[in-house]
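Today's session is about reading a structure prediction critically. Students often jump straight to the picture, but the first step is always the sequence itself: look for stretches that repeat, for charged clusters, for runs of hydrophobic residues. Only then move on to the predicted structure, which in these notes is written as discrete structure tokens rather than atom positions. Here is the chain we will use throughout the hour.
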Amino acid sequence: MKYVIILGDGMADYPIPELGGRTPLEVANTPSMDRMAAEGTLGLIDTIPQDLSPGSDVANLSVLGYDPRETYSGRGPLEAASMGLKLAPDDVAFRCNLVTLGPEDNPVMEDFTSGHISSKESKEILGDLNGEVGSESIRFFPGVGYRNLMIWRQGKYALKMTPPHDIIGRPVRDYLPDGEGAGQILELMQRSQKFLKEHPLNKKRIAAGLKPANSIWLWGQGRAPKIVPLTERYSIKGGMISAVDLLNGIGIYAGLEVISVDGATGYTDTNYRGKAEQALAALKNMDFVFIHVEAPDEMGHEGSIQGKIRAIEDIDEKVVGTILQRIPEFQDFRVMVLSDHPTPICLRTHAADPSPFAVLSSRENENLSAGLSFGESSARTSGLVVSPGHHLMELFIRSWRSFVEKKHS
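Below is the predicted structure for this chain, in token form.
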């Protein structure tokens, strides 16, 4: 049996008046996802426990079969794993965004990506920050684009920190760090602002009409989690395909091999088809591949309705379509497509509502074949909800046939 999961990050949404009360998923042209929903099994997955904040970290742990209440220790340590950084037991890893803040008198979170600053530029800035702000206990590490990392040796982690994508357009003074160690973190952020204001790279960006990376924003802190590899639990060999450190880090903890794809960017210009082709190639020697696409989430954060629709259509045609066309070569397979959480256009951040999923199996008796289309409303109509969401992986790998048979009866 071959297993493929295709996850469109933040793909789910709320009904939008400009779309006639439909969601981007329901408006987008998605014949491949619709086929999976119609011929396979459609439902909702509840990935966010009530006591945790909605985010791709918590949600994707759920999708991969981990109870986030037991395994989640913060976003930072997951990304550290992807970057090959080993954390000592008392090290704390923080996600370190390069952000654009508004005017200094009452700065707002103008852009949590610094205008999608490039990885090359981020590397230059992070290197200079180490020389100016870093110390023996504080080190900065460049990641992908605006997504970077800070490690605080023997640091504090019981802090209240706010993800910058949750406060777009809001005054940051209302969301500053709180708790033990907050003073040190705030001082680092303020020192970064003073230094970055005069940084040559930012002056070049401003002259070119681009947004400056005029502050760091720290959040998602935590120590190394304790996670039993997915590959051990199910005695399978698998791979992770993603352009972002978060998913690759989760994959590493899950025992998955990180598979690189040329042109994978974590944005709408990513190499969609290349991800699918690499997955199919990997399946020749693997049992399981997880394909993650960040683009819909980015469009949700930007509040771009048409951008999100285009991202969904690209996933459908170039990823899901490519997989469905060639997966029969392996004869025995299950393919799942889903959203990890909604990133509603109206909120421009994550929401905790259940999201649609569809599973198509090569075995006819493993499909409900209800003739539904892939979308939020249809998934609710199906009456199938997997909650808590971390149970879905167990069903998908080990007991999908018995699960579907119960629904048939």
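Discussion point for the tutorial: The chain is about 35% helix and 20% strand.
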